[in-house]
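re: ur question from yesterday

yeah so i grabbed the chain u mentioned. its 225 aa long if i counted rite. heres the sequnce exactly as i have it in my notes:
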Amino acid sequence: MNDTVDRLVVFLAKRDGIDKLVKTFQYVSKLVHWHVESTHPGIALRARNWEVASGLSRKAFRTGRFLTGFNALRRSPGGASPGMRILAVLANAGEMVYFFFDHLLWLSRIGTLDGKLAKRMSFVSAFGEAFGYVFFIVGDIILLEEGIREERKVMETEEGTIKERVGKIRGERVMRAMGMAANLADLVIAIADIEPNPVCNHPVTLGISGLVSAWAGWYRNWPSS
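ran it thru and got these structure tokens back, copy pasting raw so excuse formatting
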């Protein structure tokens, strides 16, 4: 019990940890609003207010987040293949556009900037988000395939420390798969902003996508020890 509490404290001390918790609030409240909208209007209104407040809180908390794209590129390993480096540049460029215009979207929604800009900022932010996620997903697929090949190679040629190495490879594969799940879910949410449609914009689709993204991020950020 104490160990779980300690891990929770460490998790919530991270910016991403708080973001995933508030994101959970945001999309649970969206699902609650959809479920009780026709039967309990009062509860539905409260859920809707909670969803909006959570969304705005997340945007405020992520101020300056677009700079992480520069840091990610700066820290990218020099040994990466040219193809992977190109994917990283494109993915992080899309993410930087997403977060930068997301800041402007937040300012327009709270009235600091002209509210008429909100729709335009939302489109540009979502487009950058979707653009980046496409390349993040492609990169994850390539790295997952490389991990599978490496595991097979270890199983065929190594002895003694096989279990430890294979365990590490499989652990990295799970984290990569969680990243892919989060990126795919966020891509659905971005598409809903770019090109509204009955499937992506349905409250259940958005709610489940948001929770998949939040909980995959929760898993990836949860301290191992």
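noticed a couple things. The mean pLDDT is 88. also The radius of gyration is 20 Å.
anyway ttyl
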